[in-house]
Write a structure and sequence with these properties.
Blueprint (H helix, E strand, L loop, with lengths): L5 H9 L3 H4 L15 E8 L4 H6 L16 E8 L3 H12 L3 E6 L4 E6 L1 H17 L4 E2 L3 E2 L1
Parallel strand pairs: 1-5, 1-6
Antiparallel strand pairs: 1-2, 2-4, 3-4
Helix pairs in contact: 4-5
Length: about 140
Amino acid sequence: MERITREEFLEKLFHDDYENLKGKKLRLTRVRVPGKSIDLAHVMSPSDSSVYQNLALHIGVHEGEDHRGESIGLIRFTPWEAVVVATDIAVKAAHVQVGFMDRFCGTLIITGGLSEVMTAVEEVVRFFRDELKFSVCEIHRS
């Protein structure tokens, strides 16, 4: 996807009113629209150690642990609080570790062996789709 400039974005956003708004101070507010969806479900095969370091999976409760050679599962939810349920399902479905869980942004990162991470992500997506009737995306893998 090609990036657009700020001006192009504002023009698309405000359409016909854009000419009248040029030069005026604008205030944009980010609003969360409640929904029931899994917007991202991605499993990364064992990756370079820089990925683990940039995700801070090598510090905190993971200090001293070596996650190189492990896979990473990323899942993004709306509503954000659904991540708590997803975390419970993931750790019960497979032998995975919670790398990061954020109930204020709806992000879950799990680590473990490739088959374990894939099983956990598949079970989370299945549960949310079949039991909770969420809209879900496909699971992607790299």
